[in-house]
Design a protein that fits this description.
The protein is α+β, with helices and mostly antiparallel strands and 215 residues long. The protein is 31% helix and 17% strand. It has a single domain (15-214), classed as Gcn5-related N-acetyltransferase (GNAT) (Aminopeptidase, 3-Layer(aba) Sandwich). A four-stranded antiparallel β-sheet has the order 1-2-3-5, sandwiched between helices. It has a three-stranded antiparallel β-sheet with strand order 7-11-8, with no helix packed on it. A hairpin with a 2-residue loop joins strand 2 and strand 3.
C-alpha cells in the first residue's frame, strides 16, 4: 500500500467499489503516477520518486495486463475513479493508490474494508502488505504493524519501505476482534456499504449505521 497520504476525514462522499476493467487502465495508471509524484514526494527524494514511478517504462497495455493478473478493484467517488487496490487469495495487498484529488475522503479506508471482506471470502487468515513511508501512519492507524524494514532497489535507486505488515486480528482499528460480518467462499461481499454496488442486506444496513455513529 504505497499511495495513501495518512489520515482521512469523516466528511466524505459515498465511495463505490467495483471490479477493475480494461477500460480503467489509463486512469488507474495516471492515479498511480500522481499518487507517487504528488502524494509521496514529501517522503522520498526526487530520484527515488522517478525510479518508483518509471513514467517512461510503463505503457497502458502492460499496466492493464498486470492489473488483470491480480484481483484488482477500483474506487469511485461521484462516479469518478478515485483509487484502486487488489488482494490475493492469501490476503496480500500488492497495490493501493489514491488520487491526490480525492485525498482525505476515506477512499483508502473503504478500499481496505472491502478487501478484508474479499480476503475472508477466500479463507485468507489475514491481510498483509508492503507499505511506503507515506502509507505507514494510515496502515498503523487501521491495525497493521510493521514487522520488517525493506530497502528495495529499483532502477539502481534504493527506496525505504516497511514489509510484511499483517493485520493484528482487528478490522479498521475496532478492537482485538473484527466486528465486520464474515463471508463464505464464493459468495458476494456482504456487510460493506460499497460492495456489489451497494447491497441491502441486514448486515450492510447495520454496518452503515455503525459507521455513521462513529463519524
Amino acid at each position: 500500500m504505497d499511495g495513501h497520504n495518512g489520515t482521512v476525514s469523516s466528511s466524505r462522499s459515498q465511495v463505490r467499489i467495483r471490479s477493475y476493467d480494461s477500460a480503467d487502465a489509463g486512469e488507474t495508471l495516471r492515479i498511480f503516477h500522481d499518487a507517487i509524484t504528488v502524494t509521496a514526494c514529501a517522503d522520498y527524494a526526487p530520484e527515488q520518486i522517478t525510479a518508483w514511478a518509471r513514467p517512461d517504462n510503463r505503457d497502458v497495455g502492460g499496466w492493464d495486463r498486470s492489473m488483470l493478473a491480480r484481483e484488482s478493484y477500483v474506487a469511485l467517488v461521484d462516479e469518478r475513479l478515485a483509487g484502486f487496490s487488489d488482494v490475493s487469495a492469501d490476503g496480500y495487498i500488492d497495490m493501493m493508490f489514491v488520487s491526490p484529488r480525492f485525498a482525505r475522503r476515506g477512499v483508502a479506508r473503504e478500499l481496505l474494508a472491502f478487501l478484508e471482506l474479499r480476503a475472508r471470502g477466500s479463507s485468507a487468515r489475514q491481510l498483509s502488505s508492503n507499505v511506503s513511508i507515506t502509507a505507514r501512519p494510515f496502515s498503523e492507524a487501521l491495525g497493521f504493524r510493521v514487522v520488517a524494514e525493506q530497502h528495495p532497489v529499483t532502477g539502481g535507486v534504493n527506496r525505504r519501505r516497511f514489509g510484511a505488515v499483517p493485520m493484528r486480528g482487528a478490522a479498521l482499528g475496532r478492537g482485538p476482534r473484527s466486528r465486520l460480518p464474515r463471508t463464505r467462499p464464493g459468495r458476494p461481499c456482504r456487510g460493506y456499504r460499497g460492495a456489489c454496488d451497494g447491497c441491502t442486506s441486514r448486515s450492510s444496513r447495520q454496518l452503515r449505521t455503525r459507521r455513521r455513529r462513529a463519524s
